[in-house]
Amino acid sequence: MRFANLGWLIVLLLLTGFTGIHKPAEPGDTERWLINKSSSLTINGSTNINKFACEIPGYGQTDTLILSRDRGNITLSGSVVLKIRNFDCHNAIMTNDLRKTLKEPVMPTLRISFLSLSKMPALSAHPEVITGLVDIELAGVKKRFEITYQVSADSPNEFHLLGARNVTFSDFNLIPPRKLGGMIKTNDKLSVTFHLAITPLAKS
């Protein structure tokens, strides 16, 4: 009888994959988020005499982020690519200076690649703070940053990811613009904020 029980145990282990390490993915392990056209990005900075804000008020296209959950880790794949010429500083001279400083003629885009989140957002009307890693590629230089997000949902069909991070011109080997023989100097530090309006898509 003991041998018969041992035989059934061996068969059971073979049928279940022996250890269960190769367990198939659970439903909901992967999600897709659609980044809507209304998403935007703003760069806030200052000079020795005033402050300025340069923005891309609308993304103008859609992209998809893919979220994968594995053993508590949340990875992201996907990016947004913004055209430098779409920056508007609400001042023609400042706008032109920013585009030149960011090397728009030879490096015409800013790319933000999303890599991970610290946890899955609850997606409720109450704002929630989480963090995540992104790669920012600007003027031919790629840097990795931790971003602080504020997440809130309008409805089950749309939520908002507000990201913020301080960077510097020198992070990307750029020299802050100067005017009037150096009398007006732009400070190295910049505050980058972006608003992603997102629609959750069907889980897979």
Can you lay out the helices and strands and say which pair or pack?
Layout: H1 2-15, E1 30-35, E2 40-46, E3 51-56, E4 63-70, E5 73-77, E6 79-83, H2 92-101, E7 109-117, E8 128-138, E9 141-155, E10 158-168, E11 178-179, E12 184-185, E13 189-200
Antiparallel strand pairs: 1-4, 1-13, 2-3, 2-13, 4-5, 5-7, 6-7, 7-8, 8-9, 9-10, 10-13, 11-12
Descriptive terms for the model:
single chain, 204 residues, mainly beta, Lipocalin, 8-stranded antiparallel β-barrel, two-stranded antiparallel sheet, 13 strands, disordered N terminus
Structure description:
This protein is mainly beta. It has one domain: Lipocalin (Beta Barrel). The protein contains two helices and 13 strands. The chain has helices spanning 2-15, 92-101, and strands spanning 30-35, 40-46, 51-56, 63-70, 73-77, 79-83, 109-117, 128-138, 141-155, 158-168, 178-179, 184-185, 189-200. The strands form two sheets. An eight-stranded antiparallel β-barrel has the order 1-4-5-7-8-9-10-13. Strands 11-12 form a two-stranded antiparallel sheet. A hairpin with a 2-residue loop joins strand 9 (141-155) and strand 10 (158-168). The longest helix is centred in the N-terminal third of the chain and has 14 residues, at 2-15. It is elongated and about 55 Å long.
